[in-house]
Amino acid sequence: MSPVEFEPSVSDDLVLEQKSGNGQHDVRGTHHHRTRMKPEKPIDLLRKVDGNNMCADCGASEPDWASLNLGALLCIECSGVHRNLGVHISMVRSLTHDVRVWEPSVINLFQSLGNMFVNSIWEETLPDDNSSADGSDTSQYLSISKPKHKDVFSAKEKFIHAKVFTTFTTAYIPLFFSNVWGVKNQIISSEE
């Protein structure tokens, strides 16, 4: 059973009988009730996951936005930075207003990830504070500390750009090109 499916806690048809003054059951007082547990809202389900009680990027409490592409819950300010990255990188949706997005499969995915796990991936390739600039294009992102929720927007923007683009350039682009070269080599060897 998925986390958003619930079984009724009381039988579908509950017949209540009232006793008349003479001790006899009075059928005129019979009531039919349908009682079902109301499914939890996506925001309540997702905030229960480790790390999801705060923004993945700045630590602000009670995030109410999410990046569907990156699997992270975000505060309103960091969600603005993510929106500026473009939907091809970070598709931002509200946990409260965009109700159609939060189907059981999406909720299950987010519950299995959580901000702590997602950050272990997206922040893994960020250089630590002890790194030194080496003159490469990524040196502008060196020594970036994770912003606090009260930090200025530009600090959050710089961190989020570093977090996303450093991961793309150090992990995914080399993988992409190795696959491209592999295909190219297969084509060349098949022509010989």
Automatic annotation (TrEMBL):
Keyword Iron: no
Gene Ontology MF annotations: GTPase activator activity; zinc ion binding
Record key words, sorted: Coiled coil, GTPase activation, Metal-binding, Repeat, Zinc, Zinc-finger
Pfam families per the UniProt record, alphabetical: ArfGap
KW Repeat (keyword) present: yes
Domain Arf-GAP, first and last residues per copy: 40-163
PANTHER family: CENTAURIN/ARF, OS08G0537600 PROTEIN
Protein name: ADP-ribosylation factor GTPase-activating protein AGD3
